[in-house]
Amino acid sequence: MLFLLALTSLHSRSAQNQCNDINDCRRLFDIVWGCLVTIFLCIWVSVHPNIPPPCPEAPKGIGLGFWHWWLIGSNRPFLQRLKLMTVALIAPEMILGFAARQFQMAHYLSQDHGVSLTHGFFIVMGGFVDADGHPIVTQKQLRVDSVVGQICAVDKSDIEDKSKGDLFSKAIALCQGLWFIAQCIARRAQSLPLTELEVATLAFTAINAMTWLLWLRKPLDVRNPIKLSAHTTPSNHVLSDPYPADLSGLERFGFLLVNTYQQDEYDPFSSQFVPTFWCTAYNDRDELPVLSSFITLGGQFFCGAIFGAIHFAAWGAPFPSVVEMWLWRIGTLVLVALPILFLLLVIGITILPSAQGKSPALVIVIFYSMARCILLVLPLSTLRSLPLAAFADVNWSVYIPHL
Asked: Exposure check for the chain: N or C terminus, fewer CB within 10 A?
């Protein structure tokens, strides 16, 4: 869609908007392509999914069941990664909060059980399973005799060897992100305007860079867990429905904010994998240090406000219409203010448990979602009428002689 938009805009512009000197100008296609590549590389490198569900065996014969397995069953790891990438594209601050809570839990497990941070991440992501194939992800399971000992017996290098991340791909994404940021800074230094798409891309780059740092020690794209010989299922345990349970859409959306599941929502003894947005069990959440939990939660919403604040860079930019200008400004203010209001609401509910916060929280989520949709559409719609100065390229010879 973006490529069609770029080609249509190029065809519709008059001859005076075209560059006469290719060394001093850039095309609309160059702007769109640079932003697309930067967003894709940042999201691709920053997203670290949990252990995916096991792929079912291929059915015999080439029928409807075979094609369903070929499209869905055999591509479960890719579909899980695609789900995370979609959320990272629509709401990168949500993925940042998810990464922060996983980092907090991994660090706590590494300190509490004397394992490395890589081991802690591998536990949180469902990387260790017991003899029955159930993921070992709760403190109750970890306190079973010999479980921690068997986890410590797994060498850190063996876990890192299962990771699909490599230094080369990460270096390419890092260089592309730094190059894009340098271009944005140089354009503002030379009084050249940034397009709304470039401002939105800059916000994505900043948030995804922080996500990548939080997940730096988390193994990437691990397909199969490590099986231990210990049994962690209690003899008197009553199995509940496997994930996903019968939850409403609002409750599922809420897991993006808290990432904690109760037993009736997810039971590891009834499943062979953890949910896509799994971080910790509800009972284990109470064991986390209060200050650390508050810093993690506050950091998520503070970074969400920073994500919105970056959009202020286009506050005075020329827009095709007055309506689009005010939609951008109002959407930016909403993205900055509502995360802070939501944090204050959470603090108020924590201090006053009797306070009713479900309705205000729902109103905040609705308005925040509307603002995000607006700031996803406007960077594309404004491409139809960019100022001529937006096509002027940065004069790098000012900073690098003889370039």
From this structure: N
